[in-house]
Amino acid sequence: MPARILDGSQIASDIRKEVAAEVSAMAAGGIRPGLAVVLVGHNPASEIYVRGKVKASAEVGIYSEQHTPSETSTTADVCALIDELNHRNEIDGILVQLPLPPQVDAKKVLMAVDPAKDVDGFHPLNVGFLSTQRPGLVPCTPAGVMEILRRSQIPVAGRHAVVVGRSDIVGKPAAMLLLNANATVTVCHSKTRDLPAVCREADILVAAIGRAGLITHDFVKPGATVIDVGMNKVTDNAEFLRLFAGDSKREETFRKRGSVLAGDVHPEVARVAGALTPVPGGVGPLTIAMLMYNTVKAARMRKGSGLAVSG
Ligand code: NDP
Asked: Which terminus in the chain has less CB density within 10 A, N or C?
């Protein structure tokens, strides 16, 4: 039986509706959550992501503003802007779009963000809160992974979760969230020996690698839940055929645009897995939905409205 497809777009849309309802309730109390997005220089992919975040904010009723320091900005310039945003009461969330230009020290910049406004959850204080199970702001993509599992009624407690990838942005916080939800967690990376055998142990397999289609059917235990975080641009014809031969819709896109988006999980996994997130339309849409959620949560934590957003 082919895998149940976990519809991330639908789940993200549900979360956005809940956030919009909460924003309206806060408005009745005179509070409007505010998000500042900082985009340094010109990176076409980042510009698209930032546009998406600003648009999503408007749709749920969050006030947002965009700051675009020039490509030649120094670490001190960006930190000065962050400091100004830290002090403005109408700003509840500050998001610094990564990557930053090479001369800007990303670690210093992320440290400069007030942890109470750190809607990306990257500040070491929030990382510490997550690892000690204290309330704080949780990175959006891993938080989205947990929402997919929770809202799809996939049990986590007592299950073996294998996370492939150990980045600070996805792999490590995903592993921590799964551990906090009482999974038995294994974290894999590029030095892991016999990756397919470790992955086959998983009841829940999370792929956050950045390698198109690396997870093939022989990595997956029959019936396992597979969450594909990867977003990879495939431009090579042989690579395209390895992943999508016979997929006429994708072939058309590939011929037209010269590229397609692929996850870290090979499409053949749908024949083995019990449940699977698609790419696109799986984890991706959750990232922005959880950013909206975190902005409202930050506003609630800072301004103490005592409203209903949980977590
Ligand atoms: P990073 O490059 O920071 O981390 C990749 C991780 O994968 C590293 O831990 C690396 O191991 C591991 N890895 C790389 N190659 C292998 C391999 N052959 N075998 C086992 N492990 C391997 O990436 P990110 O965590 O930032 O992103 C991962 C993917 O998720 C990307 O495709 C990215 O585009 C996507 N992404 C999607 C988002 C969304 O909204 N859906 C948001 C953020 C990311 P090591 O540590 O040893 O180098």
From this structure: N
